[in-house]
Fold these 4 entries.
Entry 1:
Amino acid sequence: MQSHELQPAWCISGDRSFHKKSWQSELVIFDDASGDTIRLDFLAAEILFIIDAADELLKSDVITSNIARQLDEPVDERLVNRVRQSLSNLKKLGFIAQSEID
């Protein structure tokens, strides 16, 4: 009998719609649901839009792979940690929700 480890998977929290605007190195996200405008770093904003564009829950490793392709970087421990921290921050903001899947 094989043991399956559950992996974190992510989706947009509630019925939210996001709009982004960027100026030079700043990126601002407007959240339709709350009416809030939040400044995010590039990585967090890209993660948010990857999750928002998905039709299903996305596993953390899939998000990391997508980010690595966009940034033309290897999937290494540094990138995994940066993505993990951004996911945590987006969850604290209430933008995304976490589930566990096989």
Entry 2:
Amino acid sequence: MSVITDLLIVTSADEAEAMARLNAWCHDNDSRQQTFEPISTDAAGGTKVFCARVWAMAANHFDWRGLAEAFPTFGWRWPVGVMLIAQYEHNDLALEAWRGDGASIEDGYAVGWAALD
């Protein structure tokens, strides 16, 4: 039986090294060695080039809470501009999200974006 968690990570273009460390963590901490892959943004709407990078994993029996706890440790260049979003199969009504500095929506996520202004 599967237990699926949809996971998305949104980063700036210059977070490849941190994503490599995150994928190494996933590989080393998951018996299935599931990792994130980039999603093409070529089909994004609007009239400009989509600049963020979006990474995804449809994880099965994955320690996503462990990943959320480790998320601030991957050496993000711009931690307040990186986000991990999780939707757990057994809670379809809610998304959980964390920034690269460890803040979550419950920790006052919206306030933290003021640091980018």
Entry 3:
Amino acid sequence: MAGFDFTFRCRDEYEPLGRILLRRAQELAKNFDLEFRYRVVPSGWYVTVDGPLPSMQALIQPMVVQLAPLADGFPKPKLRSQRRRVAERLVNEYCDGAARMREMIEDLSCQLGGTPSSYFFDEGSATHLTAQVREFERSLILFHNGLISASTFAEGAHTVTEAVLKACLPRNKGQGSFAELLDQVAEAAELAPGHKQTLLRLKERRRMAKHRGQRVRHADMAADFGNMIAALHCLFRYLRLQRG
């Protein structure tokens, strides 16, 4: 379990809207097994959020989708742009808090020799991967929230994993198959045997889906979800070490 807090500041004339937005965020958080509490303080509300970090990160998506339209439909303040800014401020404060929580957990994980469970990754100086990694992070959250199919998610996971494996190797060694690349990197990246097997299963599911038209089962991807994220964090950590 993890937690963070923040102050959601709101002028008096925006207080009714702010309260409605907080109430909706609290309702959404219940669907993610998060404790989202708030209390009145001078100039706004003091908010605390507790629960698993991945769930905190997954909550960002429905907050972005639902809070802005809720503000749009509220009668006051008169200008829609002002109402939108209140909703955006709440989402931004929440995102900043979740980012601080992620940084603290990852620092502690590094000190203890553990593996993070965050849905966000650090590609370091491998900036050619940045767009691909950000897109995969979005797909992780969408899969968590049941908004994309297992087949679509498997394709994206395979693509980003293969790209990271290639980036971990010199150019003259990064041209083999997925399994060959994984064999070259697994030991150096300190992948646990279970993590390696998870990535090999990902390769096989993607192959069966792409070349034989077989649907990837949601239950299979869900069962390997945690191990796959842990394996990717190990690969990204090794990539950062390789690139200084």
Entry 4:
Amino acid sequence: MRSIEMTVTTTPTKSDIIRTKNVHLENKAAINSVSIYVGWSETEQAAGLDTDFKELKVGEMIFFSSEKKQILRVWAKTLSGTATLSITGSDGSINKPAADASRLAWYDRNPVSVIKWWGMQDVAPHFSTQRWTYTVPTSKKAYIENVNAMAVRTVVATTVGRVCDYVVYYPSGGGSLWLTEAEFIKNAVGDSDKNNIACPITMLVGDTVTGFTSDDSTAGTVDHFLMAKITEFDV
């Protein structure tokens, strides 16, 4: 099931032409019903040829007699509001209504590039330690575009343990997601691991991404590096 969202009013509101089998209305406002106008094309609609009116109440689904019919216009029977029409396309595709021209794309809404980075050479063994963190501020969204983790052994340990540098995403609603890690249990100078991952994740207000390092060895040293590239923009 695909969905489109449009504002319907007491005057006709044109949607893009959509080839469809059925339509379902999800109530998202004080709208009791809408009228769906179905026709082959705008030209034939104007001529009144091969057309059909369907009234769809909230929660109902209607089926059209022909897959070739196309939704052309939507009317609200009550106050203006936003209704979501869930569409099943006969070919699996959907033509969404044109975007609001006044709404700028995310990359034009005061974007700011944010780099979170931490690196240090010859670091002694340590428990999991936070090296940097980023939280999406109020009235902002952000994309995590890239994360990078690398660890290199520089001095052998007396007892080798697990070395792990990692980046974790924490949604404000709870839970966590590991985005990348560099990990090894080896004990020769030059042993290493690295990961450079593209991860286009959308972050909402209050979401956090954090970089950590750890080394469970006894003695020895490791070089650690953690990085994230983030673009922050207005909601």
